[in-house]
Automatic annotation (TrEMBL):
Protein's recorded name: CocE/NonD family hydrolase
Organism: Gordonia cholesterolivorans
InterPro entries: AB_hydrolase_fold (IPR029058), CocE/Ser_esterase (IPR005674), Galactose-bd-like_sf (IPR008979), Xaa-Pro-like_dom (IPR000383), Xaa-Pro_dipept_C (IPR013736), Xaa-Pro_dipeptidyl-ppase/CocE (IPR050585)
Keywords linked to the UniProt accession: Hydrolase, Signal
Xaa-Pro dipeptidyl-peptidase C-terminal domain residues: 404-664
Signal peptide: 1-24
Annotated stretches, region: Disordered: 456-481
UniProt xrefs under NCBIfam families: CocE_NonD
GO molecular function: hydrolase activity
Length: 682
C-alpha cells in the first residue's frame, strides 16, 4: 500500500480508535482451567507473533470479479511480498472474506491495529484507564476486545498473510463498490460466494486451496458457502455466525427484531452509498454501480415497516409474506443446513450474542464432521465484543492465533495440535471462567421442573411488579398474576444483546436486571446449598390467559446472588399467535416435557386465541452454560413487552392492544421452567 494512502488511513483510524471507548461493550471475566489456553495455545501464539516467512504484503484494490449473471463484484487482494516489495511467485492458499460493510472499512481496521508502535501504545494507554466497579465498567472490556483478535478476523491479518496466505476481501453484491442490488443472503448472493471461491482457486497466485474468514455477516456466508458447495472449502473460521436467521434475529419467538434490524439496515444501506472516490478522480467511475444504488437505496426498510404496521396477516406484501412463511424460496435462503457441511469448522459464539440460537447448536448440527474437524468456543460477551480478553490467563488464545492454527492445519497440513483442542470451550455465567468438554450441552445434566408458585419468596430488595417463588414442588394454591406492558426492558441484558451490547456499557443494565424487574412478575427459588451447573436450553412452560386475541411474552432466567443482584443467563420470547411447535425438530425429555421447542414461526401456523381463554404455551429460551454457587438463587422473570429488542408483528400488536396479560397458577395444571441441572434443586 502506498505510504501516503496508508498515512491517511492510519490518521483517520486512530481518531476512530480514540473515540471507540465511548460505545464500549462488556463481556464477563473470571478464572479458568489452564487447559483453556495450555501449552498448545502458547505454541500457537509464538508462531503467530514470531517472525514470518515473508517480509511484507501488498494490497491490490478493487479487483473486478465478474459473476455468471454479468454483475461485477470488487475485492481487495492482499498478497505477501518479498524483500523487494514484489508479490511472491509461490502459489499459496487463499482466504476469502465476503463483507457487506465495505472492504474500505476492513482496510481501515487492519491498518490501524497493525500500525507499528503507535497503535499498541494507544491500546496500552486505554487499558490504563480502569473503570471497573463504576457504572461504566464495560469500558475495560472493550479494550480487551481490541486485543483479543476480533479486528484481525473482521478485516485482514498481515501476520497471517506474511506467513504464506493470500487474502481476498470482497464487497458482497449491492454493497461497498460492488455492482448489483443488496440481496441480504438471497439465492443470488449465495451463488456469488461460491463463484468467488471458484474464481480465487483458479488464479495464478493460488494453489487451489481456499478457506474463509470473517465476523457476523461474513461468518454467516462462510456457513452458507460450506453447505452450498460441500468439499470446495478447505477450512472456515466463522465468528458470531447465524444459520437460522428468522429464529436468530428477524423474528425470534415471533417478535420482530426491530432493535437490531433497524440499526443494522441503516448502517449497511448508508455505507453502500459511499462512492469510490479514487475512481472519480482517475476517470474510471462505475456508472452501473450508481444506477444499481438508485434502484434500491433503502433495502428491506419497506419490509420492516410493512411487518410493523400491517394490521392483518392477509395484508402483508408478498415479500413480507414470503419471509414469514416456511417453505418459500426467500425463507429457505435465510436458513443454512449445517448438516451438509464437510469443511473443518471452528465456530466462535457467545451466550449474549445475536446468534446464540444457532451457535449453541453448531456441534450437534455439524453431523458429517468428526470431532477433530469441529470446534466451538462460547464466551459470555456480546456481538461486537466476542473474544474480549482472549489471550490473557484463564481465557482461550486470541482469535487471530486460533484462526492461524486452524488454517495451518487444514490448508497446509501442519500438525500443530489444533485438531486436539476440546470440542466445546464454554464460558460459565454469570461469574466467568471456562469449562471444556466433548459437547454442548455438557454431559451429566438432567432436566428438572422448577414450578412457579404464588407464595412470595421474600428475596427481592428492590421494587418488582410481583414477588412469587420457584420450587421443585407443585404449587398448593391457585393464584393469578397480572403482567402489564412496560419500558423497563430498555435497560437489561436482552436490550444489550439486541443492540450488540451498547446499553451494557452501563453496569446496572448489562450486569444487573433489577431495574428491568420493576415491570416483571418474578419467581425466585431457595438458595442453592452446593455448586449447581446449568448446561443446555431452559424452557418456560406457562399457563396463561389473555384478554385479547393475541399477546406477547418475554421471559428471562436469572441467577440471583446473596447481595440481591439479579443477572440474566437465558432469555426468550413468544408471540402467542405463533406458538405452534414443530415436533419433528424439537427436543423432549423422557417424561414428554419439551426441552428444546422449535417453533414453526410461519404464517400458515398463525392462530389467534379467544379472549379470556386459558391455555398453555412454551417459551423457547436461549442456551446457556451457567452456575449457581452456594447461596445463589434461581429466578424467572416474566414480562409482556420486550422493547427495544423486539415488538410483536403488526397483526399481533394490533390484536393484543398491549393489554395486561395473566399468569394462572393452578396446582392441577402448573407452570414451570424446565432447567438442565447438574444436581437437583429443592
Amino acid at each position: 500500500m502506498k505510504s501516503s494512502l496508508r498515512g491517511r488511513i492510519v490518521t483517520a483510524a486512530l481518531a476512530l480508535l480514540i473515540a471507540l471507548p465511548l460505545v464500549a461493550l462488556p463481556t464477563g471475566t473470571g478464572p479458568s482451567d489452564a487447559a483453556v489456553f495450555g501449552t498448545l495455545g502458547a505454541r500457537w501464539t509464538r508462531t503467530q507473533d514470531g517472525p514470518q516467512k515473508y517480509s511484507g504484503y501488498r494490497v491490490t484494490p478493487d479487483v473486478p470479479i465478474r459473476m455468471s449473471d454479468g454483475t461485477v463484484l470488487r475485492g481487495n487482494l492482499i498478497r505477501p511480498t518479498d524483500r523487494s516489495g514484489a508479490p511472491v511467485r509461490e502459489k499459496l492458499p487463499t482466504i476469502v472474506n465476503m463483507t457487506p460493510y465495505t472492504k474500505m472499512v476492513s482496510a481501515l481496521a487492519s491498518e490501524v491495529t497493525n500500525y507499528p508502535v503507535l497503535a499498541p501504545q494507544l491500546i496500552d494507554l486505554l487499558n490504563g484507564i480502569n473503570l471497573q466497579g463504576t457504572v461504566l465498567s464495560g469500558y475495560n472490556e472493550l479494550v480487551g476486545a481490541l486485543r483479543g483478535g476480533l479486528i484481525q478476523t473482521f478485516s485482514y491479518d498481515p501476520k497471517l498473510i506474511k506467513s504464506g496466505y493470500n487474502m481476498l476481501v470482497v464487497d458482497v453484491r449491492g454493497t461497498g463498490f460492488s455492482q448489483g442490488t443488496w440481496q441480504v443472503f438471497g439465492d443470488r448472493e449465495r451463488r456469488d460466494t461460491v463463484e468467488v471461491l471458484d474464481w480465487a482457486s483458479k488464479q495464478r497466485w493460488s494453489n487451489g486451496k481456499t478457506g474463509m474468514a470473517g465476523v457476523s455477516y461474513s461468518g454467516i456466508n462462510q456457513l452458507q458457502a460450506a453447505a452450498d458447495a460441500p468439499g470446495k472449502l478447505g477450512a472456515i473460521f466463522p465468528v458470531v455466525p447465524g444459520a437460522d436467521l428468522v429464529r436468530d434475529i428477524i423474528a425470534p419467538g415471533g417478535g420482530l427484531g426491530v432493535g437490531f434490524l433497524s440499526f443494522w439496515l441503516a448502517i449497511v444501506n448508508g455505507t453502500k452509498m459511499i462512492p469510490n472516490i479514487a475512481s472519480m478522480l482517475n476517470g474510471t467511475f462505475d456508472w452501473k454501480w450508481l444506477a444499481d444504488r438508485v434502484k434500491d437505496p433503502l433495502t428491506y426498510f419497506d419490509l420492516l415497516i410493512d411487518a410493523l404496521v400491517t394490521r392483518d396477516v392477509n395484508g402483508f406484501s408478498p415479500q413480507t409474506r414470503s419471509m414469514m412463511t416456511a417453505g418459500t424460496a426467500r425463507r429457505d435462503s435465510l436458513y443454512t443446513d449445517v448438516g451438509a457441511i464437510t469443511t473443518p469448522s471452528f465456530t466462535i459464539g457467545g451466550w449474549n450474542d445475536l446468534f446464540t440460537n444457532s451457535e449453541s447448536r453448531m456441534l450437534r448440527g455439524l453431523s458429517q464432521l468428526p470431532d477433530a474437524k469441529k470446534k466451538l468456543i462460547m464466551d459470555d460477551g456480546y456481538h461486537v465484543t466476542s473474544s474480549s480478553n482472549f489471550g490473557r490467563p484463564g481465557y482461550p488464545p486470541r482469535l487471530d492465533v486460533l484462526a492461524r492454527a486452524w488454517y495451518d492445519k487444514w490448508l497446509k497440513g501442519i500438525d500443530n495440535g489444533i485438531d486436539r483442542y476440546p470440542q466445546a470451550t464454554l464460558a460459565s455465567e454469570p461469574n466467568g471462567g471456562f469449562l471444556q468438554g466433548p459437547s454442548f450441552p455438557l454431559p451429566g445434566h438432567t432436566y428438572q421442573r422448577q414450578y412457579l408458585r404464588g407464595t412470595p419468596s421474600h428475596s427481592v430488595n428492590t421494587p418488582v411488579a410481583g414477588d412469587g417463588s420457584l420450587s421443585a414442588s407443585r404449587p398448593a394454591k391457585r393464584a393469578t398474576r397480572e403482567v402489564k406492558p412496560g419500558l423497563s426492558t430498555l435497560c437489561d441484558r436482552d436490550s444489550a444483546q439486541s443492540t450488540a451490547g451498547v446499553t451494557a456499557l452501563f453496569d446496572f443494565c448489562g450486569n444487573d436486571t433489577r431495574l428491568s424487574e420493576t415491570a416483571a412478575q418474578t419467581f425466585t427459588g431457595r438458595p442453592a446449598t452446593a455448586l449447581t451447573r446449568i448446561s443446555g436450553t431452559p424452557v418456560v412452560h406457562l399457563r396463561q390467559r389473555l384478554n385479547a386475541p393475541d399477546g406477547y411474552w418475554h421471559a428471562t432466567l436469572n441467577v440471583v446472588s446473596p447481595d440481591g443482584r439479579s443477572r440474566v443467563v437465558s432469555m426468550g420470547q413468544l408471540m402467542v399467535s405463533l406458538r405452534a411447535v414443530d415436533p419433528s425438530r424439537s427436543g423432549y425429555a423422557p417424561n414428554g416435557d419439551l426441552t428444546d421447542p422449535v417453533l414453526y414461526l410461519s404464517l400458515d401456523h398463525y392462530a389467534k386465541v379467544r379472549p379470556g381463554q386459558i391455555l398453555d404455551v412454551d417459551i423457547p429460551m436461549s442456551a446457556t452454560q451457567a452456575a449457581l454457587k452456594p447461596g445463589d438463587r434461581l429466578r424467572v422473570d416474566l414480562y409482556s413487552l420486550n422493547f427495544p429488542k423486539s415488538l410483536p408483528l403488526g397483526p399481533g400488536l394490533w390484536s393484543s392492544q398491549l393489554r395486561p396479560q395473566y399468569i394462572e397458577i393452578d396446582p392441577a395444571k402448573p407452570s414451570w421452567v424446565n432447567v438442565p441441572l447438574s444436581r437437583p434443586l429443592g
